[in-house]
Specification:
The complex is a heterodimer of chains A (573) and B (170). With 573 residues, chain A is an alpha/beta fold. Chain A folds into three domains: 169 residues, Thiamin diphosphate (ThDP)-binding fold, Pyr/PP domains (Rossmann fold, 3-Layer(aba) Sandwich); 167 residues, TPP-binding domain (Rossmann fold, 3-Layer(aba) Sandwich); 191 residues, Thiamin diphosphate (ThDP)-binding fold, Pyr/PP domains (Rossmann fold), CATH 3.40.50. Chain A is built from 23 helices and 19 strands. In chain B, strands 5, 6, 7, 8 and 9 form a five-stranded antiparallel sheet that branches. Chain B has a four-stranded antiparallel sheet with strand order 2-3-1-4, covered by helices on one side. Chain B folds into two domains: 75 residues, Alpha-Beta Plaits; 71 residues, Alpha-Beta Plaits. By secondary structure, chain B is α+β, with helices and mostly antiparallel strands. Classes of the chains: A alpha/beta (573), B alpha+beta (170). Chains A and B meet through strand 6 of A and helix 1 and helix 2 of B. The complex binds thiamine diphosphate (TPP) and magnesium ion. The site of thiamine diphosphate (TPP) has 19 residues of chain A, from helix 17, helix 19 and helix 21.
């Protein structure tokens, strides 16, 4: 069918089953917006900043498992998208960014709003295309979605010159991609899997160290079956929170810098780490050379380059995790002696640690405690399967990780690898667009909130109500914590104040419901009201400015050397 | 250890940039790099030399495999590949000394590519090691300019083409 390039983009999105995109128009992408005006089944959500649009697309992708789409104009439009693209790159979030570029005749001339979009994003995309010929457009879009979602998922960029959008094309959406250089692994090596099963059965202190890949690879059911068949403890990272039910007796919480002592000890004292879609990130391992010195490593990943990148794998298994885990479970069943009970003593040991070193804080004193905010939110939503959490980055994020209980994948959405302040609020809007029936709650920091709070307008006007609970400690709290612990109380440039801005008034100005709470005994009532008001709501929960997040492994220390809450006074680093 | 990596890439804009950026970003150092056409008009060959331990080489190969434009990555094992490089060397040579220089260059099968009033250019093809020796030989005679192509290579017919055992790439 004959149509303009701009219409061809929308027909392609429709063919991909995309129901909503997030963006902001501008000169070089105007023809595409004119195509929106002509009509499409694709809903466009107008963000207030392209960074917001990008994080919304990420939140949408993480909540739904589908590819997120963000749209922006050339120049400042695409540079504003750089942060979400980098974020999606680090956390393997499938994202297609469609950006306008100046006309083909102007490319390379420093024309108005010309930036080298593919150049700027080169190190943070799986692939990118600059489309200068309308005939290439359908194939490029087909390839873009394919690359974003297959193999290890991640971001791609399609930069489309303005005149390409305005040129007529005889459009059909291709059925097949033509990408001779893109062949993500489709199978797993049976011998490696067999070897892994034997090692697993022979181990006395095995753990499943699970990362975000298990959610991206849609392998959570297979993970559960494996854990249950082998009786193997599961230590799921921040990015994997919810991949394995946190109420399950085999779930041993997140490891890492602010993970639990039992999880860190579990990893470090184990004799066999089965890494599944995890990448031995420094926030998990601490000092790498001291990490789990006595453990053999079996490493499952769709991305061969992750295997052996940081920690040598004794048994490497490249392939789709869903298939790999199913095959492993099968092999374990075949290899296991009748009556095999799994590592019973080891589980008892982990259980003892869990009992001896729970997360601790003192709920007393002049201030509301930040941990109490998270605990109250957890208790108010206990057992519900329609709650999706997002977070900012900082102390509040770590408390959310510690105290929330997530039993389902895609219900805890956070910025892990890049640690992007400002992620939580727009990601919540994107998650709401993906799951309109869910209650979407962003646990945000006061610092983070101020980085993207203009998107409250998007939430209110687009009918995507979310609840933002600001853990308002008046500080860039995580940085303050480092200054207190490692920079001798020199609090340089981290004080934000509790009062400015008045978050409830700000919310009201945007047409949202605003709440302020300072007293512990009013906390539950206010949160309950915010959760049930049915509108976009912002809760300013003013809390202790000095509370620190424990346990903590100082950066570069061995993960076994956890600083506990109770030993707080003895801390020196 | 020094390794020669031969990479077949789609002949598309940006393909070389993606490969070289990956090296820069991950802190891998490229010693030499040569790009040129192959027997297929839509495929180019990038030949890279890197000096790194074996595990890092494996990481480099895997990271290159992930690039969408990269079709094949193979490491040319020493002794199992034909490796060549071309150099052009300008020597400032008065007419009286030319005969001596030409005699020297014959040892390396070098050719005189240009002859001027007070300088001459030699053209020499060989293994990178041979070129280095040639360079050293000419240096005392007033070597003023040097251009090298970077090494290229192809696996010998006798070399085993079986995939290397440590890991299975795709
Ligand atoms: C965009 C960005 N800038 C700076 C940082 C460094 N940083 C990490 S946590 C943090 C403080 C966050 O403050 P807030 O949102 O109030 O959260 P809190 O730690 O107080 O809970 C900062 C500045 C970052 N992660 N992201
Ligand atoms: Mg704060």
């Amino acid at each position: 069918m004959k149509m303009l390039g701009s219409d061809a983009i929308l027909r392609s999105l429709e063919a991909e089953g995309i129901d909503v995109v997030f963006g902001i128009p501008g000169g070089a992408i105007l023809p595409l917006y004119d195509a929106f005006a002509r009509g499409s089944t694709v809903r466009h959500v107008l963000a207030r900043h392209e960074q917001g649009a990008g994080h919304m697309a990420e939140g949408y992708a993480r909540a739904s498992g589908k590819v997120g789409v963000a749209v922006a104009t050339s120049g400042p439009g695409v540079t504003n998208l750089v942060t979400p693209i980098a974020d999606a790159w680090m956390d393997s979030t499938p994202l297609v960014c469609i950006t306008g570029q100046v006309r083909t005749t102007l490319i390379g001339t420093d024309a108005f709003q010309e930036t080298d979009a593919t150049g700027i994003t080169l190190p943070i995309v799986k692939h990118s295309w600059l489309v200068q010929d309308v005939q290439e457009l359908p194939h490029v879009l087909k390839a873009a979605f394919h690359v974003a979602r297959t193999g290890r998922s991640g971001p791609v960029l399609v930069d489309v010159a303005k005149d390409v959008q305005e040129t007529e094309i005889d459009f059909t959406y291709p059925h097949q991609v033509d990408l001779p250089g893109w062949r993500p692994p489709a199978g797993v090596h049976p011998r490696q899997v067999r070897e892994a099963a034997r090692a697993l059965l022979a181990a006395s202190r095995p753990v499943l160290y699970v990362g975000g890949g298990v959610i991206n690879g849609d392998a959570c059911d297979e993970l559960r079956e494996l854990a249950e068949v082998g009786g193997i403890p599961v230590i799921a990272t921040l990015m994997a929170k919810g991949s394995f039910p946190e109420t399950h007796p085999l779930c041993y919480g997140p490891p890492g810098m602010h993970g639990s002592k039992w999880a860190n000890w579990g990893l470090n004292k184990s004799d066999l780490i089965v890494a599944v879609g995890a990448r031995f990130d420094d926030r998990v391992t601490g000092k790498l050379s001291a990490f789990a010195p006595g453990a053999k490593v079996i490493h499952f990943d769709i991305d061969a380059a992750e295997i052996g990148k940081l920690r040598r794998a004794d048994i490497p298994v490249t392939g789709p995790l869903r298939l790999a885990l199913a095959e492993l479970t099968k092999a374990v069943r075949e290899e296991e002696e009748p009556g095999h009970e799994g590592p019973v003593a080891w589980r008892r040991q982990l259980e003892e640690w869990r009992e001896a070193f729970p997360y601790r804080y003192r709920r007393e004193g002049d201030y509301l405690k930040p941990q109490a905010i998270v605990e109250t939110l957890r208790d108010l939503t206990l057992g519900r399967d329609d709650v999706v959490w997002t977070t900012g980055v900082g102390q509040h994020q770590m408390w959310a990780m510690q105290y929330l209980v997530c039993d389902r994948p895609r219900t805890f959405i956070t910025s892990g690898g890049l640690g992007t302040m400002g992620y939580g609020l727009p990601a919540a809007i994107g998650a709401k667009a993906a799951r309109p029936d869910a209650t979407v709650v962003c646990i945000d920091g006061d610092g983070c909130f101020q980085m993207t709070c203009q998107e409250l307008a998007t939430s209110v006007l687009e009918g995507l109500p979310i609840v933002v609970v600001i853990v308002n400690n008046g500080w860039l709290g995580m940085v303050r914590q480092w200054q207190e612990m490692f920079y001798d109380n020199r609090f340089a440039e981290t004080h934000l104040t509790h009062q400015v801005p008045d978050y409830a008034q700000l919310a009201e100005a945007y047409g949202a419901a605003g709440f302020t709470v300072e007293a512990d005994d009013e906390l539950e009532g206010v949160l309950e009201e915010a959760l049930t008001c049915g509108r976009t709501a912002v809760v300013d929960a003013r809390c202790d400015p000095e509370e620190k997040c424990f346990p903590m492994i100082p950066a570069g220390a061995a993960a076994i050397d956890v600083i506990e809450f109770s030993e707080e006074k003895a801390v020196e680093a | 250890m020094r390794h020669t990596v031969s990479v077949l890439v789609e002949n598309r804009p940006g393909a070389l940039a993606r490969v070289s950026n990956m090296f820069a970003r991950r802190g891998f150092n490229i010693e030499s790099l040569a790009v040129g056409p192959t027997e297929r008009h839509d495929v180019s060959r990038i030949t890279l030399t890197v000096d790194c331990p074996a595990d890092l080489l494996e990481q480099i190969e895997k990271q290159m495999h992930k690039l969408v434009n990269v079709l094949r990555v193979s490491t040319l094992e020493a002794g199992e590949a034909v490796e060549r490089e071309l150099a052009l060397v300008r020597v400032s040579a008065e007419p009286s000394r030319r005969a001596e220089l030409i005699a020297l260059s014959e040892v390396f099968d070098a050719r005189v590519a240009d002859l001027g009033p007070d300088s001459m250019i030699f053209e020499v093809v060989g293994t990178p090691e041979q070129l280095e020796s040639f360079e050293e030989l000419l240096r005392p005679h007033g070597l003023t300019e040097l251009a090298r192509t970077g090494r290229i290579g192809l696996a010998r017919a006798s070399a085993s083409r079986a995939p290397r055992p440590q890991h299975v790439l795709r």
